[in-house]
């Protein structure tokens, strides 16, 4: 398949995914993020990279953000939010982290393409369902001709960016100019 055949198929997949998303689910997620003072995030692989990009934008908004794997990450306390991205809903070490966070009193939000997975089912206080084909996923989602979890990972980055833009748009104290002032200035 050449470039001119491939990009329309990919764009069509994106359109199908975003048309299938439940806006109320996004709204609930946005409210949780807005109302949380300390937010911890975890994800692995390419979906972890999309989640790290989301963490960066949350920091640019002025949120206190911590990436679970960083050595400087403090302990989770009651009322803190852990956003765990698990495409297939069943990544063992992320499940373990969610168990520990739950024991510490944290609120767990699982972002997944497979909400029937055990972490979403057994531990999540909230699930954000992104209905895109994901590697080893088992739920009804938009299928993809792309390999493994490409569609989920790509749509995750776009969805997280949209969430940030909507949060900024809804908050009169926020602006993209203010966000840019918080951007790292030592690079």
UniProtKB/TrEMBL annotation:
It comes from Anoxybacterium hadale. The lineage of its organism: Bacteria, Bacillati, Bacillota, Clostridia, Peptostreptococcales. This is SIS domain-containing protein. It comes from the Bacteria.
């Amino acid at each position: 398949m050449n470039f001119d055949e491939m990009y329309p198929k990919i764009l069509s997949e994106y359109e199908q995914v975003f048309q299938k998303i439940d806006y109320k689910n996004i709204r609930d997620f946005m409210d949780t993020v807005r109302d949380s003072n300390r937010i911890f995030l975890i994800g692995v692989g390419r979906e972890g990279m999309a989640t790290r990009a989301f963490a960066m934008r949350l920091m640019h908004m002025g949120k206190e953000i911590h990436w679970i794997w960083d050595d400087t990450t403090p302990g989770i306390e009651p009322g803190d939010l852990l956003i765990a991205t698990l495409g297939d809903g069943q990544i063992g070490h992320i499940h373990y982290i969610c168990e520990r966070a739950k024991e510490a009193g944290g609120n767990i939000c699982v972002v997944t393409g497979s909400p029937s997975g055990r972490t979403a089912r057994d531990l999540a206080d909230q699930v954000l369902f992104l209905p895109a084909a994901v590697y080893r996923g088992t739920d009804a989602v938009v299928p993809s001709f792309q390999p493994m979890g490409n569609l989920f990972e790509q749509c995750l980055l776009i969805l997280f960016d949209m969430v940030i833009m909507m949060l900024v748009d809804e908050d009169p104290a926020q602006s993209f100019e203010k966000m840019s002032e918080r951007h790292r200035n030592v690079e």
